[in-house]
Amino acid sequence: MATAKDDKPVNNGVNVEALFGAQEALKNAPEAAKFKWRSTVEWINGTHSRSTIEGFYGLGAEQKHKKAFTFDADHPEVFAAEDHSATPVEIVLAGLASCLTAGVAAVAQARKVQLRSVSATLEAGMDVRGILGMDEDIRNGFDGIKVTYKIDADASPADIKAIVAQSQKRSAVYDIITNPTNVTVEVK
Amino acid sequence: MRTTAVVIGAGQSGLAMSWWLAARSIDHVVLERGEVANTWRTERWNSLTLLTPNWQSRLPGFGYEGDDPDGFRTMPETIAFLEGYAKRVAPPMHTHCPVTAVRRTADGYEVVTAQGTWHAQAVVLATGGFNIAQVPKLSETVPPGIIQLTTAQYRNAESLAPGAVMVVGAAASGAQIADEIHRSGRPVTLSVGEHVRAPRTYRGRDIQWWMDATGLNDERYDEVENLRRARNLSSFQIAGYRDRRNIDLNALMSLGVKIVGRLAGIRDGKAQLSGSLRNLCELADLKQNRLLGTFDQWAAENGVSDSIEPPHRPEPTRVEASPPLGLDFGRAGIRTILWATGFRPDYSWLEVPVLDAKGNLRHDGGVVTEAPGLYVLGLPFLRRRKSSLMDGAGDDARDLSAHLAAHLGARSAVL
User: Fold this and answer.
1) Residue ranges of A 12-71 with Cβ closer than 8 A to chain B
2) Is A95 in the same domain as A173?
3) Are A161 and A88 in contact (CB under 8 A)?
4) Of B265, B279, B357, the CB nearest to A180
5) What are phi and psi of B230, to 5 degrees?
6) Residue in A178, A181, A182 to test binding to B, most B beta-carbons within 10 Å
7) pLDDT for the residue numbered A7
8) Does A171 contact chain B (CB < 8 Å)?
9) DSSP E strand boundaries for B161-293
10) Which B residues, 231 through 270, put their C-beta within 8 Å of a C-beta on chain A?
11) Which of B267, B272, B283 faces A165 most closely, judged by CB atoms?
12) What's the pTM?
C-alpha cells in the first residue's frame, strides 16, 4: 500500500472520513442508501434541447442541489444541425470521465496518495450507419471507449494503475456503460 | 440425551474440535450427517485434488507422513487422510445422523436428529462454509434446452452432453473445470468476473509455501484491513495438478478456452456480457504482482533470496482488443452452462436467530456472541486467512475450544 513520502497530510479535497462514516451509518439503514437521480429535458428546436437537474431523492428524503444546473445538447453542423452544444454521446463521455476522475481522487485519498495532477482524454468509436438505420448489424452506440489517464502523484506507476483500476471497479457510470440496464420509456 | 458439547460435522474442523475438547476433558459428541469427510465424498467432482500441498494438512495430533510432501491429495486420498485422522482422534461419533434442528433452551441448546435429541451447553457448527452451490438469479432466464449444472453436481467432462460449454466463474473451481472440460473436446467459453490470479509456483516454491512462510496464512481476522472483503474474496485461481501447471486465464487461452466478460444478463436467448473484463484482469494482475512483491520483500529480509530462483513477474493477462459483449447460445452451440459461482454454508436447520439479512452467520472469530455457547468453524477467514484450509482447522479449533471451556467455567461458577 502506498503512503505519502513525507509527513505532510495527503489532501486531494475528498473527505474520506465522511465516506467511511456513511458506510457505517448505511450498514444498519439500507433504505437510506436508496437514491433516485432525476433529470428533466425540454426540446428547444431541431436537435437542440436543454436538461435541468436540481432535485434528487436519497437518505430517506427529497434532496436538492445548491442550484438548478442546466445542460444543453445539440449536434454538430456535419449532422446538419446548429451545434448549440455538445452532442449527447459526448456528454456520456464527460459523465464517464468525471465519474472515474472523482473515483481516482477518492481512492487516492483513501490510500493516502497525494495527487498533483490528473487528466484524461476519452475517445469513443461509432459507425453512424447504425443511427442512420443503414445496417441492422451495426449498433447505434459506441463500438468501444478508450480512456487514457495522465496522473502525477506521490506513488509508483503500479500503485497509480491500481488506483485507476479500483476507481473503475467502484464507478457508477462505468457500470452503467459496461453492463445492461433496463430502460422504460413512457409517453403520458 | 445429555452431553456438554455437540459438534456438528466430522470433517477436518469437527475432528480437530473433538481433539481439543477431549484434550480439555470436555464431554461431547460429534454428529455426522453421513460419514467422515462427507462433503469431500459426495459433493465434489472426480478429478479434484486439494489445492494445498500434502505437507500443509497439519491437524492437531496428525499430519502427512508419506513420501510426497509437495504433492496434492486426490479426493480418495483426502477421504482416507480424514478417516485416518478420525481413527487417531477416536471421537464419540454418531454417523448417518443428520441434524434437523438446533434450538436454544433454558440452559443451553437442543440438537434434534433422527437418532434422538441431545441437550448440551455448547454447540459447535463444523458443517463447513461450502455446502450450497450459489447460482445467480439470472439462471432462471437461461433458454430451455440448455442443461445447467453447479460445481457440486459436476462429476466429469465425459458425462456432459457433447457440444460447447459455458463455465461461469473463474475462481479455482471454475478455472479447473474449464481446463478439464476443454481438454475433453468440448469447447469452453469461460465467463470471468472478479478473480484472484496466482501462480502455482513462484521462484521455485509453491504458492502455499510462500503464504505459510511469510505469515500471510496466519494473519488474524482482527488485524486484517478489510475483513468483510477478505471473507468474500474468491479462492486463488490455482489447481493441484501433478505437473503443477497454472490455470490462469493466459494458460486457459493458450489451451483454446474462450475468455469473455462477466455474465450480466440474458435477453432473447442471448447472453449479455459485461464490458469490464479488461479492468477485472488488470486488477487481478496488479494484485498478483503486489502479492509477489510481498514475497520478494520477505525473501530479501529473511536472507533466502539467494537460495531460491530470481524474482519474475508473470505475463499480464492477454485480453483481446474487443472482447464480445454478447453470445448467442444457439449459434455458439452451447449445450451446458456450468455455474462455478461460489458456495455458501447451509444453516437451514439452525433455529437460533443469528443470521443477518443476507443469511450469513453473525460471529466474532467463530464465537457467536449473540448466542453464548454457540461456535462456528471452517468459514473463510473465520479467525485467520487459513481458516477454511485444512491447515487452519487446528488453530481455530484450539482457540474456540479455549473460549468454550471458559464459557462452561463461567456458567458453572454462576450455577
Assistant:
1) 30
2) yes
3) no
4) B265
5) -60, -35
6) A178
7) 63
8) no
9) 164-168, 188-191, 201-202, 205-206, 258-260, 263-267, 270-273
10) 261-262, 264-265, 267
11) B283
12) 0.90
- What's the mean per-residue pLDDT of chain B? 95
User: What pLDDT, in 10s, does the model give residues A20-57?
Assistant: 888 888 888 889 999 999 999 999 999 999 999 999 99
Tell me if chain B has a CB within 8 Å of the CB of A165: yes
The cell numbers describing B150, all together, are 453447479
Domain boundaries along the sequence of chain B: 5-131+345-414, 141-339
pLDDT band at B414 (very low <50, low <70, confident <90, very high): low
Interchain CB contact of A177 with B (< 8 Å): yes
Cβ distance A144 to B322 less than 8 Å, yes or no, reads yes
Distance CA B201, CA B184 (A): 25
Residue-wise pLDDT tens digits, B355-398: 998 899 999 999 999 999 999 999 999 999 999 999 999 999 99
Fold of B5-131+345-414: FAD/NAD(P)-binding domain (3.50.50)
* A180/B282 Cβ within 8 A: no
Beta strand segments in B281-396, E: 326-328, 334-339, 343-344, 374-376
Q: Which three cell numbers stand for residue A64?
A: 436538492
A151 shares its domain with A81:
no
Distance CA B351, CA B111 (A): 10
Over residues B307-329, the pLDDT tens digits come to 999 999 999 999 998 999 999 99
ipTM here: 0.82
Which of A166, A169, A178 faces B275 most closely, judged by CB atoms?
A: A178
pLDDT attached to residue A21: 84
Under an 8 A CB cutoff, do B275 and A177 touch?
yes
C-alpha gyration radius of chain B: 22
With a cut of 90, say whether residue A81 has pLDDT above it.
Answer: yes
Residues A96, A128, single domain; the answer is yes
